[in-house]
Amino acid sequence: LSTQISEQATLFHQFLLADDEALINDIRGVLKLSPLRHLTTPSGHKMSVKSSSCGSYGWLSDKHGYRYQNTDPVTGQPWPDIPHRILVKATEVSRLAGFENFQPDSCLINVYTPGAKMGLHQDKNETDFSKPIVSFSFGLPITFMWGGFKRSDKYQKFSLQHADALVWGGKDRLRYHGVQQLKEAMHPLTGRCRVNLTIRQAG
Ligand code: MD3
Ligand code: FE
User: Fold this and answer.
1) Which tens digit of pLDDT belongs to each residue from 142-187?
2) Ligand 1: which of 16, 27, 123, 156 to mutate, most ligand atoms within 8 Å of CB?
3) Span 132-154, pLDDT tens digits
4) d(CA 55, CA 177)
5) For the chain, percent of residues with pLDDT exceeding 90
6) Within 6 Å (CB) of ligand 1, which residues are found?
7) Ligand 2 mean position to 149 CA, how many Å?
8) Ligand 1: which residue has its CA nearest to atom 18?
9) How far is it between the farthest Cα atoms of the chain?
10) Engineering a disulfide at 178: which of 116, 120, 123, 164 sits with its beta carbon 3.0 to 4.6 angstroms away?
């Protein structure tokens, strides 16, 4: 079952359900090597999500700006590899959405606890906007905001739920998007949090 959000954005409901526990364990393995941390925006605000990355490039935000970097500043080491199962599911779902030749080299892990949110923004630190982005959601549901090409454009709301996969690219690649505050609740696999992966070809 899938929902066509826009011409080049497709939400595959519960696409990851058969592999949910294995995928969550894969993420736990990454987080043992590169732990979650709060990033700071260039303006000096602490982000409400906690983040880490895996792959050749990890996304960072600090007082110097937003960028991708090939080492984790916490460990001084390269980021952990993207777990094979995550790569397989991401390339499989991107092909279903009509994007061939997607070779992910970066996976941002964002963990939301109740109250955490992400305001409307564009993802534009990647080098090739013709490549899609794939997002995986686990645990508690959240309300996703799907906007236009200006921050002030109206947005539509969709629920992102456990084991959902979302793929977008093409003309929709630079849309403003975000998520509303996570509501207090408990999920059997993740506890009181939501885990979001954004899988990208950054370099
Ligand atoms: C549509 N995360 O990490 S993922 C992010 O659910 C981020 O945690 C959100 O935005 C989350 O950068 C949304 C789905 C998503 C991501 C980027 C998009 C949808 C998008 C870019 C353009 C259009
Ligand atoms: Fe984003």
Assistant:
1) 999 999 999 999 999 999 999 999 999 999 999 999 999 999 999 9
2) 123
3) 999 999 999 999 999 999 999 99
4) 24
5) 99
6) 108, 110, 118, 123, 133, 135, 144, 160, 166, 168, 172-173, 175, 177, 179, 196, 198
7) 13
8) 177
9) 42
10) 120
ipTM of the complex: 0.91
Region 93-109: mean pLDDT is 97
Domains of the chain in start order, with CATH, are: 2-200 (2.60.120.590)
CA–CA dist 55, 71 (Å, integer) = 10
Pairing of strands 133-139, 194-200: antiparallel
